[in-house]
């Protein structure tokens, strides 16, 4: 309990620091005007566009789960995705990353560890895909440099964070590929680490780890990797399209090509382990809006707050509606992520 409390205090402190640096120079009157100057028909259109992100994520996830079970119901994939993101947005601890696969495992009768393994693969490919799209944006600079007023500072910042993201993604990818191709050695290694723990506990951990490694089995085929990468590109170009329409709704004349590096930056912010991405999203969203779109800090902050609030509200309402249909609440489903793992 003490460790959980200290961890919560640490992430809340980190969120507070990031929020301070995000909003320290904001004129809140200007920020409010930016939040209320809206094209309402476009803003209404953005709601199904955001929900569509869960659709494409569910389609991609089903591809990863095919080796475990064919014919997984799309409705369950969509529900698990929406519920998992709702838990992560609303509650601290990123419990939603565990709730999502366990919710689906319960619905479809698949192995929990296997489902968790696919989520790790998904997260790695999210990073790799965004790094690849950012690299294309940077390499194609001569094609649009004369039409888009993007400063040299913006390119330098993007290059720096691109290197950070690529290094992290490649490191994690190398780790999980090593686990997959050296499964027996990995299990033996963890078995030695756990030999002083109670037998029941160590057996449960090793079973979960074995299922987790088997959830990485799509690495055996280059064709599978290629198809999954294409699906990941589809997911992230759809996310960029959502942001593009959202910015147009708030009267930001954004070129679609500039939204891609903005989405990369918010992805970096989302990877910071704060509750509901608070702080990390605000800092990197403001950075992208000021560097790429030339907005002043106050207007960027207003649009950032509106963007984050819109995502949290739509995700919460969607997740809550799904759970209410089953007679559950977000706090009840959170226990799934806390009690079903060792």
Task: Please give a structural write-up.
With 342 residues, the protein is an all-alpha fold. It has one domain (27-339). The protein is built from 15 helices and no strands. It has helices spanning 2-23, 28-36, 40-65, 74-90, 96-108, 112-139, 141-144, 152-181, 183-193, 199-214, 222-249, 256-270, 280-293, 297-325, 330-339. α6 runs antiparallel to α8. The radius of gyration is 21 Å and the shape is globular.
Structure at a glance:
With 342 residues, this protein is mainly alpha-helical.
Biggest sheet layout = none
What do the pLDDT scores average to?
Answer: 83
Name the assembly state: single chain
Using the alpha-carbon principal axes, give the shape.
Answer: globular
Percent range for β-strand residues = under 5%
- The chain-level structural class is mainly alpha
The low-pLDDT segments are none
Order of helical and strand elements: HHHHHHHHHHHHHHH
Total number of domains: 1
Distance between the termini: 15 Å
Number of strands: 0
Question: Which bin fits the share of residues in helices?
Answer: over 70%
Helix count from the secondary structure assignment: 15
SSE diagram, text form:
Layout: H1 2-23, H2 28-36, H3 40-65, H4 74-90, H5 96-108, H6 112-139, H7 141-144, H8 152-181, H9 183-193, H10 199-214, H11 222-249, H12 256-270, H13 280-293, H14 297-325, H15 330-339
Defining key terms:
342 residues
